[in-house]
Design a protein that fits this description.
The protein is built from 15 helices and 17 strands. It is an alpha+beta fold. Strand 13 (about 345) and strand 14 (about 350) form a beta hairpin. The radius of gyration is 30 Å and the shape is elongated. The structure holds heme C (10 copies). One heme C binds near residues 153, 183, 191 and 222.
C-alpha cells in the first residue's frame, strides 16, 4: 500500500525558510500591492509556467487577507482551487487516490517548474515516490523495458497509465492492454540484443481471431509480459528459454506456458489414454484439474503423438538439445491451426516446417530431417 512520504512535512519546513529568504531581497508592500511579478518574478522562472502566473492572474488563487498587510489566503482549498478553471478529474470509472483526495499540488507546482506539465519532479520520480516497488523492479531487473526509459519514452509511466482517471482497469489509457502496447510496437524497436519485430503488423496480418493465440486474441499481452521489466528474457512474467535448443527441467524451463497449459503435455513419454481422434480443435482443449490450479489440456494429453508415443516429449523433454515450443509454435499468431509456424529460425537460417494436417495426425518436412508423419490412431513408421 503506497503511503505519503515524510518529505511532505520536510518540504513544508523548507518552504517557510525559503519564503523568509525571499523576504530579505525586497520589502513587501503595505497591502496586496500590484504588478505581483515585479517582485515575485522567481515564481515564473521555470521552463513550464502556468498561464495564470504568466499573465499575472495571481488573484485567481490568492485572496488578499488585509488592506494594510501583505497577507493572503486562498480562494479555495484542494481540488476546488483548480476546479475554478479546470474540469473535474474524478468522473470516470477508475480513479487515482491522490487525485480524488485533491492532492493536485503534491504532483503539480502551482506556478512553474522545469518538468512536463509543471510537475514538481520528473515523471518517474513523481510516480515512484508513492509506488516504490515499481522503482525497485525497474532499477534492478535484468531485462528493462524501454517504455520506462525517459530517453526512449519521455512520458514514462503516463504513456500507458492516465495519471488522473480512466475507464479501464489500472487506469490504462486504452483497452485491451494490447492497444497501449501497439502505440510503440507498431514499428521495430532496438533492444540490448538486436531489433524486435513490429508486433502490431504481425498480429493485424492475422485477421481471423482463431489464428491468434488465446491471450493475444483477447488483447492481454500482459498475461505473458511484465510491462515494468523482469529478470526474464523479453520482460516475460515467467521463464521461457531464449535459444533453439534448451535442456528440459521441470517447473523451470516452460513455466510461462505451463501457467495455463498442463505440463503433462511434455512429461508422459507413453500415453496410456485410449486413442482419440481430436477432430474438433475447439472442443479438444479443455480445463483439467491440477493440484496447483486448473490447466488447459487436450483429451489424451496431447494430439501431437504417434500411436501412444508422445511427440512433445520426444522433441522437447531432453537433458540437452530439447526443442523449445518456439521452434514449432508462434504463440502470438500464425497462419496455421494449433499456432504452428510456417517457418522457424535456427541461428541465421530461416527454414520452412512444411507442416501438413490429416484428420488424425499430420506430417512435417523441416530443414532438420526428412518428411516424418504421425497418426494418433494408427501409428506411422518413419525412416530413422
Ligand atoms: C514590492 C514587492 C512586492 C509586490 C509588488 C508583491 N509582493 Fe508578495 N511578497 C513580497 C515579499 C518581500 C514577500 C515576503 C514578506 C512576507 O512574508 O510578508 C511577499 C510575500 C507574498 C506571499 C506569501 C505571504 C502570504 O501571506 O501568503 C504571497 C502569497 C504574495 N506575496 C503574493 C503577492 C501577490 C498576489 C502580489 C500581487 C497582487 C504580490 N505578492 C505583490 C513582495 C511583493
Ligand atoms: C493556480 C493557483 C495559483 C496561482 C495562479 C498563483 N499561486 Fe501562488 N501559490 C499557490 C499555492 C497553492 C501556494 C502554496 C505553495 C505551494 O503549494 O507551492 C502558493 C504560494 C505562493 C507564494 C509563497 C511561496 C512560494 O511558493 O513562492 C507566493 C509568494 C505566491 N504564491 C505568489 C504568487 C504570485 C505572485 C502569483 C502570480 C504571479 C501566484 N502566486 C499565482 C497557488 C497559486
Ligand atoms: C485562474 C484559472 C486557473 C486556475 C485556478 C488553475 N489553472 Fe491550471 N491552467 C489554466 C490555464 C488557462 C491553462 C492553459 C490551458 C490549458 O492547458 O487548459 C492551465 C494549464 C494547466 C496545466 C497544463 C500544463 C501547463 O502548465 O501547460 C496544468 C497541469 C494545470 N493547469 C494544473 C493546475 C492545477 C494543479 C491547479 C490547481 C492548483 C490549476 N491548474 C488551477 C488556468 C488555471
Ligand atoms: C499523481 C500525480 C498527479 C496528481 C495528483 C495530479 N496530476 Fe495532473 N498530471 C499529472 C501528470 C503526470 C500529467 C501529464 C499527463 C500526460 O502528459 O499524459 C498531468 C497533467 C495534467 C494536466 C494537463 C493535461 C490534462 O490532463 O488536461 C492538467 C490540467 C492537470 N494535470 C491538472 C490536475 C488537477 C486539477 C489535479 C487535481 C485534481 C491533478 N492534475 C492531479 C500528474 C498528476
Ligand atoms: C501521493 C501518492 C501517489 C502518487 C504520487 C502516485 N500514486 Fe498511484 N496510487 C496511489 C494510491 C494511494 C493508490 C491506490 C493504492 C491501492 O489501491 O493499492 C494508487 C494507485 C495507482 C494505480 C492503480 C493500482 C490498481 O491496482 O488499480 C496505478 C496504475 C497508479 N497508482 C499509477 C501511478 C502513476 C503512473 C503515478 C505517476 C503519475 C502515480 N501512480 C503517482 C498513490 C500515489
Ligand atoms: C508499457 C506500459 C506501462 C508503463 C510504461 C508503465 N505501466 Fe504500470 N502497468 C501497465 C499494465 C499493462 C499494468 C497491468 C499489470 C498486469 O496486468 O500485470 C500496470 C500496472 C501498474 C500498477 C498496478 C499494480 C500492479 O502491478 O498490478 C501500478 C501501481 C503501476 N502499473 C505503476 C506504474 C508506474 C509507477 C510506472 C512508471 C514507473 C508504470 N506503471 C509504467 C503498463 C505500464
Ligand atoms: C512508450 C512506448 C512503449 C510501449 C507503450 C510499450 N513498449 Fe515495449 N518496448 C519499447 C521500447 C523502446 C523497447 C526496446 C527497448 C527494450 O526494452 O529492450 C521495447 C521492448 C519490448 C520488448 C522486448 C524487450 C527486450 O529487451 O527484449 C517486449 C517483449 C515488449 N516491449 C513488450 C511490450 C508490451 C507487452 C507492451 C504493452 C503492455 C509494450 N511493450 C508497450 C517501448 C514501448
Ligand atoms: C502466451 C504468452 C505471450 C503473449 C500473450 C504475448 N507474448 Fe510477446 N512474447 C512471448 C514470448 C515467449 C516471447 C519470446 C519468444 C519469441 O520472440 O517468440 C515474446 C516476444 C515478444 C516480442 C519480441 C519479438 C521479437 O521480434 O523477438 C515482442 C515485441 C512481444 N513479444 C510483444 C507482445 C505483444 C505486443 C503482445 C500482445 C499483442 C504479446 N507480446 C503477447 C510470449 C507472449
Ligand atoms: C494466459 C494463458 C496462456 C498462456 C500463458 C499460454 N497459453 Fe497457449 N493457449 C491459451 C488458450 C486460452 C488457448 C486456447 C485458444 C487458442 O487456441 O489459442 C491456448 C492455445 C494454445 C495452442 C493451440 C491449442 C489448440 O488446441 O488449438 C498452442 C499450440 C499453445 N496455446 C501454445 C502455447 C505456448 C507454447 C505457450 C508458452 C509460450 C502458451 N501457449 C502459453 C492460453 C495460454
Ligand atoms: C517439434 C515441434 C513442436 C514442439 C517443439 C512443440 N510442439 Fe506443441 N504441437 C506441435 C504439433 C505438430 C501440434 C499439433 C498436434 C495435432 O493436433 O496434430 C502441437 C500441439 C500443441 C498444443 C495443442 C494441444 C495438444 O497437445 O495437442 C499445445 C497446447 C502445444 N502444442 C503446446 C506446446 C508447448 C507448451 C510446447 C513447449 C513445451 C510445444 N507445444 C512444443 C508441435 C510442437
Amino acid at each position: 500500500m503506497p503511503r505519503l512520504p515524510s518529505q511532505v512535512t520536510l518540504s513544508a519546513v523548507a518552504f517557510i525558510l525559503w519564503t523568509a529568504a525571499q523576504a530579505a531581497s525586497k520589502e513587501a508592500p503595505a497591502g496586496p500591492g500590484d504588478a505581483c511579478l515585479s517582485c515575485h518574478e522567481k515564481l515564473a522562472k521555470g521552463t513550464v509556467v502556468h498561464p495564470p502566473v504568466k499573465n499575472g492572474l495571481c488573484l485567481g488563487c490568492h485572496e488578499p487577507a488585509s488592506d494594510k498587510q501583505h497577507a493572503f489566503g486562498f480562494r479555495a482549498e484542494g481540488k476546488q482551487m483548480c476546479r475554478q478553471c479546470h474540469a473535474p478529474r474524478d468522473t470516470q470509472k477508475v480513479l487515482h487516490n491522490p487525485v480524488t483526495e485533491g492532492l493536485c499540488l503534491f504532483c503539480h507546482d502551482p506556478h512553474s517548474s522545469d518538468h512536463h506539465v509543471r510537475l514538481r519532479k520528473n515523471i518517474f520520480d513523481t510516480c515512484t515516490q508513492c509506488h516504490p516497488s515499481k522503482r525497485i523492479q525497474d532499477r534492478t531487473s535484468l531485462t528493462r523495458h524501454g517504455a520506462l526509459d525517459p530517453e526512449r519514452n519521455k512520458l514514462v509511466c503516463v504513456a500507458c497509465h492516465d495519471p488522473h482517471q480512466s475507464d479501464h482497469p489500472k487506469r490504462l489509457k486504452d483497452w485491451p492492454p494490447m492497444n497501449v502496447c501497439f502505440t510503440c510496437h507498431d514499428k521495430p524497436q532496438e533492444t540490448q540484443d538486436g531489433e524486435v519485430m513490429n508486433m502490431k503488423a504481425w498480429v493485424d496480418s492475422h485477421e481471423k481471431l482463431e489464428l491468434r493465440h488465446g491471450p493475444v486474441r483477447e488483447g492481454l499481452c500482459n498475461e505473458c509480459h511484465e510491462p515494468h521489466g523482469t529478470d526474464n528474457w523479453r520482460i516475460l512474467k515467467r521463464p521461457f528459454p531464449p535459444e533453439f535448443y534448451w535442456p528440459y527441467r521441470q517447473d523451470l524451463t516452460y513455466a510461462l506456458c505451463f501457467g495455463c497449459h498442463d505440463q503433462r503435455l511434455i512429461e508422459s513419454e507413453k500415453i496410456a489414454e485410449k486413442a482419440a481422434n481430436n477432430e474438433d480443435p475447439a472442443k479438444d482443449l479443455a480445463w483439467g484439474k491440477r493440484p496447483e490450479g486448473d490447466r488447459l489440456i487436450r483429451i489424451g494429453v496431447t494430439g501431437f503423438r504417434n500411436g501412444e508415443e508422445n511427440l512433445h516429449f520426444k522433441h522437447a523433454n531432453k537433458v540437452d538439445k530439447g526443442r523449445t515450443c518456439r521452434d514449432c509454435h508462434d504463440f502470438h499468431a500464425s497462419p496455421n491451426v494449433k499456432h504452428i509456424r510456417d517457418s522457424t529460425r535456427f541461428g541465421n537460417w530461416e527454414y520452412r516446417l512444411n507442416y501438413q494436417r490429416t484428420v488424425s495426425g499430420g506430417s512435417c518436412w523441416p530443414g532438420c530431417h526428412v518428411e516424418r508423419r504421425y497418426d494418433r490412431v494408427a501409428k506411422k513408421e518413419n525412416p530413422r
